Amino acid sequence: MDIALLISKTIKKLRLEKNLTQDDLAYLSGLDKTYISLIERGKRNPTVLSLYAICKALGISLSEFFVIIEETEKAG
């Protein structure tokens, strides 16, 4: 699977698991709601700094995020 698509789907999945709206995630991460939406739809790739802010808002570390990515990729 395309890594950019996997990142976007994982962010959305984690956000929904935390019962957060895109507005909530935008507020908690300090990012714009439109940017969050574009990331989740695969229209934009987050920078490392943005991904860090998103992970922090979701209550996980970058390393935990990439473990989830790897597990998802292995599961196919």
Tally of separate domains: 1
Give the low-confidence spans.
Answer: none
Alpha carbon gap, first and last residue: 8 Å
CATH architecture: Orthogonal Bundle
- Number of alpha- plus pi-helical segments: 5
Radius of gyration: 11 Å
Average pLDDT taken over every residue: 96
Model description:
With 76 residues, the chain is mainly α. It has one domain (3-75): lambda repressor-like DNA-binding domains (434 Repressor (Amino-terminal Domain)). It has helices at 3-17, 22-29, 33-40, 48-58, 62-75. Helix 1 (3-17) packs across helix 5 (62-75) and helix 2 (22-29) packs across helix 4. The protein is globular, with a radius of gyration of 11 Å. The model has no long low-confidence stretch (mean pLDDT 96).
